[in-house]
Amino acid sequence: MLIRSRKSWELSENSVTSESRYLNRRSILKGIGVGGLIAGTSGFALPSFAKGEDPSASLYPVKRNTAYEGGRAITPEKFATTYNNFYEFGSHKSISKAAQALKIRPWMVKIDGLVEKEMEIGIDDLLAKMPLEERIYRHRCVEAWSMVVPYSGFALSELVKFAAPKSNAKYLVMETFQDKSMAPGQRQFWYPWPYTEALTLEEANNELSFMATGLYGKPIPKQNGAPLRLAVPWKYGFKHIKSIVRFHFTDTRPETFWEDLNSREYGFWANVNPEVRHPRWSQANERDIGTEERIPTLLYNGYEEQVAHLYKDLGKEQLFK
Ligand code: MTE
Question: In this predicted structure, what is the pLDDT of residue 73?
Fold first, then answer.
């Protein structure tokens, strides 16, 4: 049996308000158009967005920030949305149908730990506060495949600013939802659920760190991590945590999901480097999903100029796994 002690940054279950008890009233009200109210009735009204439609659909497409281009052809949407890793819905690539069970409204995001004021905010209220833009990023998985993806969303530094961390906060820990009735993969007790990832605060404030809320000019699909997913393109894909419900600021480096499972193969830093082998395969090149071409992998996935300075004093750390 896997016995796992609670990490210092984890809240006990009863100190977290259950998501189902929370109705994000403002975002529901925002969704109620004239047609959504049944004339002459009082009390309960349904939001006007069509069944199955994402209530943030009207926000997209957003303006592209041309400072971030992929450097090669954008991967056709059908590949990026059907070839996925999302272990909550299965430990294989074809989880796109199963992931439709993910319920993305109401969706509360908790901001806590070393911040001026802990809070919980509904995703639509958060989206309304953030400056949305589109960026094209290269996306390199530790399994040696890659894509070029147009993400919409906002700079993670904007969320950090909004959260107002205290001066002693050093790390930002992100956590995925936990609900095994929705996500059958979470019944597999040998995984250390919930999925967690973390960045140093300096990394989180780097210009490249991005919260993706859209994909290909539309709300981000469930299988890609709706409604809120991290994109840090100089790091292997397992850092790109999906469907985030919590941002926790701490002064202590946490153990992350894959590091906890297998620290020999997956580390905290996970920066892309073609010269550092995964213990079981070479990282020298990658398979472009879409063209099926094998192309050379670049240091920091080609983003060296933007991020190399973050690591100059960390020579003793294992920066590339
Ligand atoms: N986030 C959660 N919550 N669960 C996961 O299993 N898989 C990671 C990452 N984020 C994963 C996750 C891995 S291994 C990769 S490569 C990317 O998501 C895949 O993102 P994509 O399906 O959008 O390409």
Answer: 97
Instruction: Show the ligand 1 pocket: residues with CB < 6 angstroms.
Output: 84-88, 141, 176, 195, 224, 237-238, 240-243
Atom 22 in ligand 1: residue holding the nearest Cα: 84
- Neighbouring C-beta atoms of residue 174, cutoff 10 Å: 25
For 260-310, the pLDDT digits (tens) are: 999 999 999 999 999 999 999 999 999 999 999 999 999 999 999 999 999
Count the helix, strand and coil residues of the chain and give each as a percent rounded to the nearest 5.
25, 20, 55
Q: Compute φ and ψ for 212, nearest 5 degrees.
A: -90, 125
For residue 43, the 8-state DSSP code is S
Label residue 3 exposed, middle or buried (CB < 10 Å: 0-12, 13-18, 19+): exposed
Buried-exposed string 75-96: b where 16+ CB fall within 10 A, e elsewhere: bebeebbebbbbbbbbeeeebb
- Please, are residues 62 and 135 in contact by the beta-carbon 8 Å criterion? no
Atom 11 (ligand 1) nearest CA: 86
- Which numbered atom of ligand 1 lies nearest the CA of 197? 1
Separation in Å, CA 47 to CA 33, 51, 89, 267, 299: 7, 9, 28, 43, 47
Strands 196-200 and 285-288: unpaired
Left if phi > 0, otherwise alpha if psi is -120 to 50, otherwise beta: which for 59?
Answer: alpha
Instruction: Say if CB 247 and CB 111 are below 8 A apart.
Output: yes
Domain 13-311 sits in CATH 3.90.420.10: yes
Closest CA to 308 of 318, 299, 317: 299
Residue nearest to atom 23 of ligand 1 (CA): 224
Paired tokens of 108: 């509360």
Element (H, E) at 211: strand 210-215
